From TrEMBL:
The gene is ndk. One of its GO terms (cellular component) is cytoplasm. One of its GO terms (biological process) is GTP biosynthetic process. The lineage of its organism: Bacteria, Pseudomonadati, Planctomycetota, Planctomycetia, Planctomycetales. Homotetramer. Belongs to the NDK family. The active site is at H115 (pros-phosphohistidine intermediate). GO terms for molecular function: ATP binding; metal ion binding; nucleoside diphosphate kinase activity. This is Nucleoside diphosphate kinase. NCBIfam families: PRK00668.1.
């Protein structure tokens, strides 16, 4: 089954929105293979956002993502990477459709509440940054036949 790395960013924690965002993820039918609260260090930020380190907005991004605790989630389910990106909305909350997480809870481009891996390759890289293998727990739920058993699952 496909896994993706989701971060509930410092604004989501500060604004007490984590429970509501996690409920949306579970309501959709996904499950959590790993859950962790932590503070991102500048080193971790540079590792995670390696593709953005040389961009002009990186210093602002680093000071935001290290400004308070985050919640890291390993989310599992069919096409988890793509479906979670759809649920999140666009990078800029103001461009995000109502019904998406960013479209319902935000108005900022930088403080956009949630991170989700943008490809299966990124997901594998990012999950390994935030979770040790033994921190990820594979479970099978009795609900799965009702949620997606007849689909082709990866
Ligand atoms: P992530 O899931 O967090 O990676 O967001 P994304 O994939 O929708 O956007 P992207 O990877 O392009 O940018 C990473 C993060 O940097 C965004 O989520 C924003 O928090 C921030 N960001 C992106 N573009 C800008 C910008 O132009 N200015 C500022 N200040 N922040 C930006
Ligand atoms: Mg990104």
């Amino acid at each position: 089954m496909e896994r993706t790395l989701i971060l509930l960013k410092p604004d989501a924690v500060e604004r007490r929105l984590c429970g509501r965002i996690m409920a949306r993820i579970e309501d959709r039918g996904f499950k959590f293979a790993g859950v962790k609260m932590l503070k991102v260090t500048p080193e971790l930020s540079r590792q995670h956002y390696a593709e953005h380190v040389s961009k002009p907005f990186y210093p602002l991004l680093e000071s935001f993502i290290t400004s308070g605790p985050i919640i890291a989630l390993c989310v599992e389910g069919p096409e988890a990477v793509r479906v979670m990106r759809d649920m999140m909305g666009k990078t800029n909350c103001r461009d995000s459709a109502p019904g998406t997480i960013r479209g319902d809870f935000g108005l900022s481009r930088q403080m956009n509440l949630i991170h989700g891996s943008d490809s299966i390759e990124s997901a594998a890289r990012e999950i390994a940054i935030y979770f040790k293998p033994e921190e990820l727990i594979a479970t099978t739920s009795a609900l799965e036949p009702w949620l997606y058993a007849s689909d082709e699952v990866k």
